[in-house]
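Renewal narrative, Specific Aim 1. Our central claim is that a sequence can be written position by position from structural information alone. The example that follows is taken directly from our test logs and has not been curated for this report. It begins with the structure tokens describing the chain, in the order in which they were read.
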């Protein structure tokens, strides 16, 4: 929870703190090292600058770099990586955790480009594709770049332990899941297979994120990016499944409801957002296809909405007792994870 000055002032009004204590507490909070991300102008500048630099060497890479040749690309990547590592260590020493994490992430993002250059330098690049296609098309030979990125990312997470380092790892896992399709299908870009692989690889990423969440429950949030791309992969793969059965559509709706519940329990907004989109899609289907000429449907839906609001009121009244009884039956690691949210 982010504590503001107004929160402390409200505590004074409720006579929980004295005015003198509130001033001392606020000064103490301000003096704490700023290691976590926040939505303020300083952090916006940090991440904007970092994403511009990372994007320049990934998504926005142009064909001009091909003129350097494989060896030239490797040497430039090594130079950039050296600068990135130097800045990471400088910022880390000075206590600037966010810039240090961004610079270390920049080095990880250079890995696929360096591997691409190395393959060209060794003469083992298999076709006429260029590096910028890595972020646009699905190909089996990106595998070497992806596995190298995961290896470098794992080393950096172990050494520097900044949560933002998980971002390129999560993206790479997503890319890897799509490229594995080509290997499984022998080069056949079967759309049904793509959807299934996206859905099940997303589930695996969510499970990995949950495991990381439990393991790092008393540290930083290392699971955020894995959750994000895992939910995206799973939800898109699930939503694109074709079905003409009302039962399967209702099951889809139920899964989205379940996602909302999981998101609330784990305090992970990405589950809630995509679950809500899925629920709205199903309700839209009911309104436009099943009950399109029914005057009763909007009334029923309104009543259902008010019932949900009433359930929210009941939940608020009994939330603490329900949570306490529920958590007492959970395993200790999971209980500690939920209590830390």
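The sequence written for that structure reads:
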């Amino acid at each position: 929870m982010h504590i503001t000055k107004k929160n402390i002032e409200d505590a004074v009004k409720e006579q929980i703190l004295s005015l003198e204590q509130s001033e001392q507490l606020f000064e103490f909070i301000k003096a704490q090292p700023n290691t976590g991300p926040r939505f303020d102008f300083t952090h916006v500048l940090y991440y904007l600058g970092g994403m511009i630099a990372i994007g320049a060497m990934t998504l926005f890479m142009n064909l001009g770099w091909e003129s350097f040749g494989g060896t030239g690309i490797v040497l430039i990547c090594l130079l950039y990586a050296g600068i990135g590592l130097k800045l990471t260590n400088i910022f880390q020493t000075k206590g600037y955790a966010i810039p240090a994490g961004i610079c270390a992430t920049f080095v990880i993002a250079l890995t696929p480009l360096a591997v691409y250059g190395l393959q060209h330098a060794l003469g083992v690049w298999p076709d006429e594709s260029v590096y910028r296609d890595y972020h646009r098309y699905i190909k089996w030979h990106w595998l070497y770049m992806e596995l190298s990125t995961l290896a470098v990312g794992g080393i950096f997470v172990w050494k520097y332990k900044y949560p933002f380092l998980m971002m390129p790892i999560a993206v790479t896992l997503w890319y890897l899941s799509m490229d594995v399709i080509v290997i499984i299908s022998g080069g056949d870009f079967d759309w049904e297979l793509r959807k299934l692989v996206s859905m099940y690889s997303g589930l695996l990423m969510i499970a990995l994120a949950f495991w990381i969440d439990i393991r790092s429950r008393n540290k930083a949030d290392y699971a955020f990016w894995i959750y994000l791309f895992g939910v995206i992969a799973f939800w898109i793969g699930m939503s694109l499944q074709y079905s003409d059965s009302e039962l399967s559509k209702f099951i889809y709706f139920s899964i989205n409801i379940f996602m909302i519940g999981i998101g609330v329990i784990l305090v992970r907004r990405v589950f809630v957002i995509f679950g809500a989109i899925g629920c709205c899609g199903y309700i839209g289907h009911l309104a436009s296809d099943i009950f399109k000429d029914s005057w009763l449907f909007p009334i029923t839906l309104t009543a259902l909405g008010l019932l949900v609001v009433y359930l929210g009121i009941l939940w608020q009244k009994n939330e603490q007792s329900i949570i306490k009884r529920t958590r007492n039956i959970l395993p200790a690691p999971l209980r500690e994870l939920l209590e830390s949210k």
